[in-house]
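User: Hello, can you help with two protein structures?

Assistant: Certainly.
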Amino acid sequence: MTSLNSHGLRFAFGTLTALPVRVTRWDRATARTGMLCAPLAGLVVGLLAAALGALSLLAGSGPLLAAVVSVAVPAALTRGLHLDGLADTADGLGSGKPAEDALRIMKQSDIGPFGVITLLLALLAQVAVLFQLYGEGGWAQGALGAVVAAVAARLALTLASRQGVPAARPEGLGAVVAGTVPVGRAVLVAAVTVAVCGAAGAVSGPYGAPHHALAVLGALAAAELLLRHCVRRFGGVTGDVFGGVAETAATAALVVLALGP
């Protein structure tokens, strides 16, 4: 079990980040453990994004540049794969083609108009919210938002990997992780993550805990809507769909943080 956990952590960080971690096992048992550990990978990505964004603000850059930095770091730490997945998923869904043709469109290397527009709006929304958080709440509030968004994004991947969600193709990352995580374990990880994010949000004021917990729940709800739509349209999930789910969750978490007190 200890060995499997070690391989699972390597799988999580080796597939969900660009950190120099070598994946030593590539099977469904390892994928299950890895996807259960996905929020930990999100925590590391979020902390790095928060640290560089906060340092930028404290160095006098202003909240807008700090927000851009906090959005750029997760993109760099995934080599843009999640953003690419979001764009490809948007192109596949927007094409209106049957599942087989839509999946072929998603595999193409170019990005179509639906992908460009979706990417632009998602990145603008992320930067806009972090600009608001850094500007109104200082470095601590902006940093916390960056961490919560990154954790929520990877938690959405844990739930998207649950049993009962099929793969759309027999090959690729989607096929390796799809349906590997028992539903009960996925829910448990989600409950713990929501509670931890809520506890972290308590430092931002009397409504901070429920607000940040609600941000994660809102992220999961948005990701679930996209996931179900993709399963209906494509017959299952792909690596691109996982990327789209992650970016949708991150954006939704930040949008919820921008609303309310």
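That covers the first. Now for the second protein you mentioned:
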Amino acid sequence: MLLNCYQEELLEAGCDEAGRGCLAGPVFAAAVILPKGFVLEGLNDSKQLSHDQRTLLRPIIEQEALAWAVASCDHEEIDRINILNASFLAMHRAIEKLHTQPQYLVIDGNRFKTYPQIPHSCIVKGDGKYLNIAAASILAKTHRDEYMANLHADYPHYNWMQNKGYPTTAHRRAVIEIGLSPFHRKTFNVSDPQLDLFSKNA
């Protein structure tokens, strides 16, 4: 069972990102402050949930959170500053957008660039341990998926509606056959010819 928060003395925001491993599109991040005693059946790491489950949970989180925000770094920023720094920047942007300033941050993962004047802790697999990080993971994932689904209408050959920009065999093959879209990350190894290595993701 997930815990409400990492510590109880300070007002805490959970932070997570989505899209780090994608070949195309932005990386999204979310920051969420939940009320004490918050309970939501089914809330878990977004990767453990189906699309339908995430879709049902998102509006409840957005309605009941004390504060939430979603932000992103686009593919050009990712190419310029690298995906790790872009992930940190997207989280910083999400934190900055919160209408309630947190006093403490919990970050999913093992690294983070300190946000000015707010202490933090990095929690490996934190989205499966704390509700506020799990909530952030769902918001980041659903907002990004929605963004990629909208892009799909203009670039249907890459099937972003289904793969959301992740490196499936079909996605890589489309890049080899058609070329890069304006939204692909040019510093990523998009057109690796060893497609069989990625067949499990197809």
